[in-house]
Amino acid sequence: MNTNIDMEQLAQDADNIFHQGFACSESVIYAIRKNFEIDLSDDAIAMSSGFPWGLGGGGCICGALAGGAMCIGYFFGRRTPGDPRNQRCFALTKELHDFFTESFHSPCCGVLIKDYDRDAPERKAMCTDIVTSTTKKTAEIILRELKHDEQQES
């Protein structure tokens, strides 16, 4: 795993793949996987394919936020029932949610894009900013927590 993350490269990777045809959730997961050099199957990207447009077009949670939450879960989520690790994962995901809401005023895709035509360049530009900002914030949270864990182990 790589923890020497170039945040500008991370954002550029998210931007590039977003413009090549991945949607918001897929782009966040792709960029985190690539830059952290983690052994994460393409299945994780496929599992996030239903999130764009607010859960398949339902207008609910923004896919970028959902993808970021999935990445936090990969690093800090539980893998066995009853593991209390989920409390840390909840707190970190809430931190991402709060950042997202403060930055973009709503976690809901339908609210974020309501004034735009789906194919409008202005909507794509706004979503690009959301994807890159969310990817960077997700990486910052992961890096901070990994560093904290490393210091605890020393």
Automatic annotation (TrEMBL):
Pfam annotation, one family: C_GCAxxG_C_C
Keywords recorded for this protein, A-Z: Membrane, Transmembrane, Transmembrane helix
Membrane-spanning ranges: 53-76
Keyword Membrane recorded: yes
The protein, known as: C-GCAxxG-C-C family protein
Gene source species: Drancourtella massiliensis
